[in-house]
Structures are given as structure tokens and as C-alpha cells.
Write a structure and sequence with these properties.
By secondary structure, the protein is α/β, with parallel strands linked by helices. It is built from seven helices and five strands.
């Protein structure tokens, strides 16, 4: 053995006996990386929940279809028409329009409900008979029924639309002197 090869052999032998120190990497190993990427199948609990919800939806849909096919339906309340009413005092009796408005709110005309949106004085106080001026032609029949509730002459129901109906008034009631029993009804009940 030459001196050179003996030196290399001794270095190799010495180097092999020294403990090697490995640096620990902060990066995950390839196996760890792949295990993180793999998706786990959902558990059995989630499968049960999905199955139960699917069954509930199926039952709901089938019961709805059976109701439709058998003609069974829930009874809906009858459709009501809401009418906006303006009440004007044309007789000069204090609070006649206000009392008439209270009477209109409490009146029961089939299929209609009245919303008194304005109570004012008419341009004059010499109105002898109560008039109902219909502003929307769809409200004519309801106005006639309201006239009979008020005790007014049904011939005093007239159709006269407003040009600028910005308040969406359906019926204008002009209280005349013939409405004194209605206007004084609240006074006598107290």
C-alpha cells in the first residue's frame, strides 16, 4: 500500500466512525405531503344524514303531488278589496265627516275593506244629500253597497275620475244633511 492510499483509507475509516449529524428539514417528507393531499371519504354519519334528508324531501314531494291529483287544497280566505276613501263634510255639522269616517271604517261590505285616508271639509256646507263620487270604475258596486250602509240614496253614486289622483282615492264621500243620523250616531251612543 502506498502512502497515499493508506492516507485515503485512514481518512475514510476515521470519517466513517464519526457520528453523522443530519439536519432535520422543516419541509414534510414526500409521504407526509401525499397523505395530506389525499381526500378522505365522508364518514358514515354524513351518508345517513343525506339519506334521511332525501327521504323527507321525497315524502314531501309525493304528498304534494297526491294532494294536487286528488283535488284537495287548503281553503284560502276570500280575496278582499281594499278601497281608499276620502270623506268630506258638506253639511256643516261639526265632526260629521269624522263620525262618518268612523262609521265607514266599521262598516262591513262583503269583499271590501275601507281605508279612510283623508277627512276634510267640502267646498260648501249646503249639500243636502250625501253623495258618493267613485274615482275608480272598479269600485262602483262597492260604493253602492257603502251608500246603502250609510243610508244614502243609491242614485247619488256617480262615477267621476280625478285627473291627478295622486292619493289613489277610490271613493269620495261628501256628507250631506241627510247623514245626520250617521253623523250623530256616535254622539247618541256616548
Amino acid at each position: 500500500m502506498s502512502a497515499r492510499s493508506a492516507l485515503i483509507h485512514s481518512i475514510t475509516w476515521v470519517g466513517s466512525t464519526l457520528p453523522r449529524r443530519k439536519k432535520k428539514s422543516k419541509l414534510p417528507t414526500h409521504k407526509q405531503y401525499l397523505s395530506r393531499l389525499s381526500t378522505r371519504p365522508p364518514g358514515r354519519g354524513l351518508n345517513y344524514i343525506i339519506g334521511i334528508l332525501s327521504l323527507v324531501v321525497l315524502i314531501f314531494i309525493s304528498s304534494t303531488v297526491l294532494k294536487i291529483m286528488s283535488g284537495e287544497s287548503s281553503s284560502l280566505p276570500p280575496e278582499r278589496t281594499y278601497l281608499r276613501v276620502q270623506v268630506l263634510n258638506g253639511c256643516g255639522i261639526p265632526k260629521a265627516a269624522s263620525r262618518t269616517a268612523d262609521f265607514i271604517r266599521a262598516s262591513s261590505v262583503e269583499g271590501a275593506e275601507f281605508d279612510v285616508i283623508e277627512i276634510e271639509n267640502f267646498e260648501s256646507y249646503d249639500v243636502t244629500e250625501t253623495m258618493l263620487i267613485v274615482r275608480d270604475e272598479r269600485a262602483v258596486e262597492y260604493a253602492r253597497s257603502l251608500a246603502s250602509e250609510l243610508g244614502a240614496n243609491p242614485d247619488n253614486v256617480v262615477l267621476k275620475p280625478l285627473k291627478d289622483n295622486y292619493m289613489s282615492i277610490d271613493i269620495t264621500v261628501v256628507v250631506g244633511r241627510d247623514a245626520e243620523p250617521v253623523a250623530n250616531a256616535e254622539k247618541s251612543s256616548k
